[in-house]
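Throughout our pipeline, every protein is held as a single compact record rather than as scattered files. The remainder of this section carries one protein's record, kept here as part of the documentation.

===
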Amino acid sequence: MSGMSDPHLPEPRRLEFGWFLPTAGDTTAYGLASAQIASSLPLFDKVVAAAEAAGFEYMLVPVQTACWEAWITSAMMVARSKSMRMLVAARPSYINPVLLAKMVTTFDQLSGGRICINLIAGQSEAENASEGVKWGKEERYEIMEEEVTILKRLWTARGPVTFDGKFYQLKGAQIRPYPFQSPHPRFYLGGGSRQAWEISAKHSDVHLFWGDTYERIRANMAEIKTMAAAHGRQDQIGFGMRLQIVCRETEKEAWDFAHGLIAHASDAQKAFVRERFATSEANRRVRELAAGGEVIERNLWTGITQVRPGAGIAIVGDPEQCAATLQDFIDLGCHSFCLSGYLHDEEAERFGKWVMPILRARNKGRMPAAPTAA
C-alpha cells in the first residue's frame, strides 16, 4: 500500500469506547453467593472512576427489574465524575415525551453535554407486564418512533410544537432549556428486529450490535445502511459492538476465569434466562449462536449467554488477542464499542492498561490520547 488516503473515501470515524455500570451488582462467579457484590454507591464510584481513568468515554446504565433506577443513578454519577457521558435508556411509554425531552435537556445543560440516549423497546414481555406496560413489541416500536420524533422536534423547534400521532397528541408544546449539544444528544439503539433496524435507520447515531460472526455483522451493517439511505442518512448512521471482555495476561488465565464465571450457575438460573427473554429477537440470535458452539469466531465466546440476558458474547484472551478481535470489528466499519467485564472496575483497569495502548497504536488519529493521572 502506498500510505496515501483516497480523497473520494470519507474519513474514518473517530473510535469511542464505553463501559457498563453494574447497577444490579457485580460478581466473579454467577450462582456463587460468596462471589456476589451488592449494588451500592461505593461500587458505582469504583467502576466509574476506573472506567474514566482507563479512557472510556461513556457509561451504559442498564434497565431491568434487578437494576437500580437508571436516571437517578446517571444524574448522581455524572456529578461524581469528571468527563464520563451517561448512556441512559428511553423506554417507550414509560415517560411522557414532553417531560422526557425536558429531562434530557436539563441533564444535558447541567452536565455540559454528558448525556446520550439508549433506545430500548424491552427484552422481556413478562417484565413489561409486571411493570404495567400493556403494549406488545410492535406497538412499543411504534410508540418509540413517535417519542423520538417528538423529542427531536421539541429540541430543534424554536416555537410551539403540535403533533398528531396514533399514541400522542400535542398542542403547542414547548420546553426549556434547549439542548447543550448541537443539534441534540445522540441516540444509540441495539435491537435485532426489523422494526429496531428501521428506527435506527431513521433516527440513530449509532446502531450497537451484540456479538456475532463477522459475516453476519458485515451483512447487517450493509442492510441497515440501505434502510438508512431511504431517509438520506446512509452517511450519518454509525455502527458499534456491545461485547463482554475477559482479558488476562495469558490466554489460559482468561479462559480459566471465563469458565469459572459460569461454572456455579444452576439449571434454574439458566432456564430463567432462556425463558424470560425468549421473545427478544436479539436474545433469540444469541441463543442460536450458543447452540452452534462455545466459540463463534477466534476468541469470541458464547458462555455468558447461559447466565445473563442481553449482550453475553465475550472476547476472551490475552491483551493482543483482545485487541486483534476488536480490530477485526473496527476494520469491518464499527467505531463505537460498549464493553463490560468482571469485576467491572478491575476489568476496566486491565483494558485501559493493556488493550487501549495497542488499539491507539493501530488506529492513530482515531482515538483520544491516554488520560493523564490525576
Q: What stands out?
A: Residues 16-362 form a domain with the TIM Barrel fold (CATH 3.20.20.30).
